[in-house]
Amino acid sequence: MSLPPPPFSEPLRLNQIGAGATRDLEPDEAVRARIARTLDLIKLPVFKARLTVKPADTGWTLSGQVTAHAVQRCGLTLEPLPTDISESFAIALLEADPRAPAEVDIDPEDDGPDMVEDGVIDLGVYAVEQLALALDPFPRKPGAVFEQPEEPAEESPFAVLKQFKQPD
User: Which of 8, 70, 80, 164 shows a CA-CA span of 20 to 30 A to 98?
Assistant: First the structure.
């Protein structure tokens, strides 16, 4: 089974980096709509990213700034909830070794470098990932309060049988 294509793709080949490469990304309305669907947003009227890839001691460093105006859905009222995002980030990248074994032990505590496969860094995927990480996973409008519904009185299964009891 193959993965669906990313909602936004902006590939950068390793041979295009040289001493460093900076890209300004601003997807059009159709791409922003795909990103909004992917991230379960009502809409994404503004999404911009400025990304820089530079060589590092081992591999590369991808750093950048993601800015956006997104409209999420309040988790309690389901009403539109506008939010502004402005996040900076830096990620270490390392070229995957094609001779390495296919099985990889994953340590959830290890925040090691991301692997670059096939000589391409997809800047669009990283920009969307950083936007997703910056969004509030449980958006709530100011003043929205969760009110626990009243629990129904627990009815004994035998209470129903009492209805059928013959009067003496």
Answer: 8
